[in-house]
Amino acid sequence: MALPHFILSDARLPLTEEPRPGSDAAAGLTSFGPRGPLRSIPEQIADFLLENYIARATSSYPIFYEPWLRSAYASVFQDAPNISRGNGSNINEPKVYDTFVICLVMAVSLSSTASTKQAQANSMASKLCKQAISHIKQVLTDDFAGIQALVLLHTYAIMNPAVANVYFLAGYIMQACMDQGLHRETSIADSIDRTDLLVQDMRRRVFWTAWELDASCSAGFARPVALRPEDISTVFPSDF
Questions:
Q1: How many CA atoms does the CB half-sphere of 90 hold within 13 Å?
Q2: Does the pTM of the predicted model rise above 0.85?
Q3: CB neighbourhood size of 62 (10 A)
Q4: What is the pLDDT of residue 112?
Q5: Do 238 and 203 meet the contact criterion of CB atoms below 8 Å apart?
Q6: Of 152, 199, 148, 196, nearest to 176 (Cα)?
Q7: Alpha-carbon distance 52 to 105, whole Å?
Q8: Model confidence pLDDT, tens digit, residues 215-230
Q9: CA-closest candidate to residue 159, choices 71, 56, 78
Q10: Which range among 6-20, 63-77, 109-123 has the greatest average pLDDT?
Q11: By the 8 A CB rule, do 13 and 126 touch?
Q12: 156, 162 contact by CB (below 8 A)
């Protein structure tokens, strides 16, 4: 799956205020060291951001199985056991996918949490997003995991639209969903083991999250949705 280059923007995210040279905020934005912005987050803060994402974001964007998300987080910051992602695969994958996901999870959480020092939070979130996007060619595989990665990127882009054209990105995600047959309940049921209810439910969650994002963007821009409701047979997931 190749994401068209015009969807992403290299523009720096707008800040509510610029940190002054020599200030603590400016130093905090540049002193990442060789590990990059993700691994430079103090463990206590990273733990808080993960819990904040799970508490606030997963109810609106239920695109990952929570135990897998926690295990991916642990695999980035420490060793972790294998846990199913909820899409038929397990965590024994190139670590680049985990890094991509956790970078954007931290970015989404930062953007939705900061009530003070917003410039610093926005700048850090931007750097985390750029670190994630640096892995995008490896992450956007032509499968369900690739769609999950795209939907996660979109959830950050709607908070910081300088990252991507949210309307085009939403439409691209819907096309990927249709290519995978996620808009058809029979396709979801036939593509995997019928006894794996978790995998089926996760596919429904991701599809309806993607459709809601596309519908919201389409309404905001007064443009048509990529997929009309009457063309969808996928049932709602168990948590909806």
A1: 5
A2: no
A3: 19
A4: 87
A5: no
A6: 148
A7: 10
A8: 999 999 999 999 999 9
A9: 56
A10: 63-77
A11: yes
A12: no
User: What pLDDT, on the 0 to 100 scale, is given for residue 178?
Assistant: 95
Q: What is the per-residue pLDDT across 197-206, written as a single tens digit (0 to 9) for each?
A: 888 899 999 9
Task: Read off the pLDDT of residues 151-195 as tens digits, 9 standing for 90 and up.
Answer: 999 999 999 988 999 999 999 999 999 999 999 998 877 766 655
Tokens of 220: 């905001």
Q: Which residue has the tokens 């642990």?
A: 74
Instruction: Give CA 11 to chain center in angstroms.
Output: 19
